[in-house]
């Protein structure tokens, strides 16, 4: 098997309009396609992340809560590469997004930090 990259990451949100605003307006991801699936009473929003990646944002009626412990088995967090981490932190703070202190990856020497989406999904920004 030969993979060429990650095509998309799927996220289920609890409040579609709030999450759509966060990912489109705050994080600046562009909308590829938005679909309402009446039979499921559900939206699917395809978002462009960078040049080659996508996020599929889903809404479902009454989804179960995410496991709260970040060290639980399963997906731990999503990391987005940024050109300037300090500038990105200022931008996120301006948009009322609480961001942890910037740290340095002891293996790569690169700066990184974490913040959360409206459903407390842990998101990371990582210096290019």
UniProtKB/TrEMBL annotation:
Pfam families the UniProt entry points to: Glyoxalase
UniProt GO molecular function: metal ion binding
Entry keywords, A to Z: Metal-binding
Boundaries of every VOC domain copy: 5-128
InterPro entries: Fosfomycin_Res_Enzymes (IPR051332), Glyas_Bleomycin-R_OHBP_Dase (IPR029068), Glyas_Fos-R_dOase_dom (IPR004360), VOC_core (IPR037523), YwkD-like_dom (IPR037478)
Protein name, as recorded: VOC family protein
High-level lineage: Bacteria, Bacillati, Cyanobacteriota, Cyanophyceae, Nostocales
């Amino acid at each position: 098997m030969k993979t060429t990259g990650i095509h998309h990451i799927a996220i289920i949100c609890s409040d579609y309009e709030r999450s759509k605003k966060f990912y489109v307006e705050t994080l600046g991801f562009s909308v590829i396609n938005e679909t309402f699936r009446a039979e499921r009473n559900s939206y699917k929003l395809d978002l462009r992340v960078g040049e080659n990646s996508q996020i599929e944002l889903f809404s479902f009626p009454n989804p179960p809560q995410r496991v709260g412990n970040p060290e639980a088995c399963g997906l731990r967090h999503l990391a987005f590469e940024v050109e300037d981490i300090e500038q990105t932190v200022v931008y996120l703070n301006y948009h009322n997004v609480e961001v942890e202190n910037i740290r340095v990856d002891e293996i790569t020497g690169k700066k990184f930090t974490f913040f959360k989406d409206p459903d407390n999904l842990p998101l990371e920004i990582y210096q290019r």
